Write the structure tokens for this entry.
Amino acid sequence: MTAEVLPSKTILNFTVDPNYSGKNLPGWFLMNTFLQRHLVQVMHFQPQDDFDSGRAAVLSGNYDLVYANPFDWVQYQQKLDFLPIVKPLNHFDEVYLCAPAAGSIHHAEDFPERIRIASAHPSTLVHMVGLFLMDKADIDRARLDFVFTGSYQRVLKALLQGQADLGFLFNEVYSSASKLIRERLRVIDQSDDAFAFHAFCVGPRLLPQRELLTDLLTSMDLEPRGKNLLEDLGFSGFEAVTEDEIACLATLADEYISGHEAIDIRATSSLAVADSAFVVAREDPEGGTN
Amino acid sequence: MAKFMSTEWIRLVGKQWDTHPEIQKDLKNFNATWEYYIEDRPDIPHVMLFCKAGKVIYAGPSDGRRRDFIMWTSMDNWEKILSGELSGKAALMTRKLKFKGSMMTAMKYMTPFNIHLSILGEIPVDFDS
């Protein structure tokens, strides 16, 4: 395959979701090396401390390649013309609703009247799905007091230090935590949606090489060095993202970020919600649904 | 055997819904209307369900009331979805099942959404209408 090659002196910048800033960084530095070698391109890897600084850094336009969480990659696509190209194989973003194992919460019935919840950031899919889990347990959202920690590692910390009754944890963070930490947590509920995913996204400067990069990432599992690297990062492989998946998740993110709500929130919450917050399939004034 | 997307068929769907306590439990806080139609059969009228607190309280022709969701696709894709060849999630993600309404709600209720599609598939149906 032929691909347009950037001038050899161009230095590309690569970053990953802030979720990875506190763990497995050596693996991501090795990924950077792997990509540099195969793209024959100098690439600088820069981890991020938290969601706000990570988003701000990418939105400032200084990055060319990002491994981003779903609601962030939708933003990068819409605001900076990034393109999501590959996602982890058979691997989706799910949420664990956790409580400290040493505490008295075993089920939703045990939740205190005011519930302190540690969540990394309100503008994440993990937060949205965490709210869904609370709705499913018939918990009035008016009972929830959030502590936004900026990262999942700090959600863990808040739980272990007793600063929160519950935490919304990204499944990868829970699964990759040490046995010692997992033993100090109790999983109260978890999502099983298999719907949303992180993705590698390429920025405008790297777009001409998207096919090369897609081929490289989706075939990593076929060579020993790539396979080892995938194992280090906790993935079995990568597969291409489709346009339909992008459109579907963009719709979901738009609804959530714009403050729309699931249509029945008023059935389980005493929070005031305006009619305008609801999305319904009312007749389209421009010609119906076709 | 009921013809697919007929009034008879959607009423049987409504009755079949009553035999699934799990979906009624999952949707106990769910009140919504939704409509179905066949994209490549404009001659077949649209049908709809109205679910209130998990129970279907209306199953019949689309009667002009506000619809919270609209789902439509080709006859071929309906057959694949109802046979289980295509899962609800895959149908949505690949946009083989076209969907208008809150995607957040669809995701929130993905499990009952899939049960609902399997209920549609439980009704013996004649697709050659």
